[in-house]
């Protein structure tokens, strides 16, 4: 048998011993340095590893690191870790759309708390140019200047080109295709609900398949009836008037049912509302 002169480990073949001696001598070389913890006698290969390990024996420093990580950690991730440590099921991670919406709500709350100031870090020099300090504050263009601006826009055909482009269904369809328009999470939920209870009644057309004037409805009846369903998000459509959307599609002969995102929490109520909409004359 072949024995190691350092750790006295036995090997069957000399080649195994030669390979082991390279590793064993290399390890003893590093252990000969000051890389052994004086508290628990644990050995490390590099001094940086030892320095990082020594922090585990410093309770105060370890608590500071823990608090810093807790502060920098995502609240959603912190909730999942807390639930796991308590033996509870982890909450379902939120989608990027919900995170963006939550950030938008927080941004509006911060602006409201700051008295309407969107950027509180504006320098005093720039702040002096805002509001009444601006030399153009409270002033308006003279009628002659307004006439010149309008004449210049009309000469370039800007308003006409913009009106023609926005009223062109093909342009609106190409624009939606370029934006890669596809159903969002709420539209997918409503689509699954309609497919389950009304399998041959509704189709998703919010990807630009159908353009009425300059607007694209979300769902259209496919049985020859001029019926539409519009799904409004609680955040993105909070300033929109459902009656205005219904009146707009009314001029093309379509009756429109407007559903809100919060209504999807009660699927049975949504099904009943759609069924009543279908039975209406």
Explain what this protein looks like in three dimensions.
The chain has 281 residues and is an alpha+beta fold. Among the domains are: 2-57, Double Stranded RNA Binding Domain, CATH 3.30.160; 143-176, no CATH class; 181-279, VSR Endonuclease (Endonuclease, Chain A), CATH 3.40.960.10. The chain is 50% helix and 8% strand. The protein contains 12 helices and 6 strands. Strands 3-4-5-6 form a 4-stranded mixed β-sheet, with helices on both faces. The relative contact order is 0.05.
CATH-defined fold name of the domain at 181-279 = Endonuclease, Chain A
In which order are the strands of the major sheet placed?
3-4-5-6
Distance between the termini: 98 Å
Shape: extended
Structural class: alpha+beta
- Looking at the overall shape, the CATH architecture of the domain at 181-279 is 3-Layer(aba) Sandwich
Quaternary status of these chains? single chain
Write the layout of secondary structure elements.
Blueprint: E1 2-3, E2 10-11, H1 14-31, H2 47-54, H3 59-72, H4 75-85, H5 96-113, H6 124-127, H7 143-156, H8 158-166, H9 169-178, H10 185-197, E3 202-204, E4 219-221, E5 227-232, H11 242-250, E6 255-260, H12 267-279
Parallel strand pairs: 5-6
Antiparallel strand pairs: 1-2, 3-4, 4-5
């Amino acid at each position: 048998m072949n024995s190691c002169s350092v750790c006295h480990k036995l090997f069957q073949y000399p080649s195994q011993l030669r390979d082991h001696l390279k590793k064993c001598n290399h390890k003893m070389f590093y252990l000969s340095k000051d890389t052994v913890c004086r508290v628990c006698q644990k050995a490390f290969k590099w001094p940086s590893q030892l320095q990082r390990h020594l922090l585990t024996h410093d309770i105060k420093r370890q608590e500071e690191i823990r608090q810093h990580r807790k502060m920098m950690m995502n609240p959603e991730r912190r909730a999942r870790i807390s639930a796991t440590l308590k033996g509870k099921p982890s909450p379902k991670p939120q989608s990027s759309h919900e995170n963006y919406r939550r950030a938008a709500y927080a941004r509006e709350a911060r602006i409201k708390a700051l008295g309407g100031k969107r950027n509180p870090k504006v320098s005093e020099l720039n702040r002096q140019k805002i509001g009444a300090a601006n030399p153009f504050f409270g002033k308006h263009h003279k009628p002659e200047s307004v006439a010149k601006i309008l004449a210049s826009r009309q000469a370039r055909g800007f308003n006409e080109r913009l009106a023609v482009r926005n009223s062109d269904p093909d342009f609106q369809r190409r624009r939606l295709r370029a934006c890669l328009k596809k159903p969002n999470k709420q539209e997918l939920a409503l689509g699954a609900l309609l497919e389950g209870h009304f399998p041959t009644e509704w189709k998703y057309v919010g990807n630009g398949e159908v353009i009425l004037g300059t607007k694209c409805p979300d769902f259209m009846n496919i049985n020859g009836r001029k019926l539409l369903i519009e799904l409004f998000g609680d955040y993105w459509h909070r300033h929109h008037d459902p009656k205005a959307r219904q009146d707009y599609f009314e001029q093309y002969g379509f009756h429109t049912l407007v559903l809100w995102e919060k209504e999807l929490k009660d699927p049975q109520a949504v099904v009943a509302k759609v069924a009543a909409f279908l039975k209406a004359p």
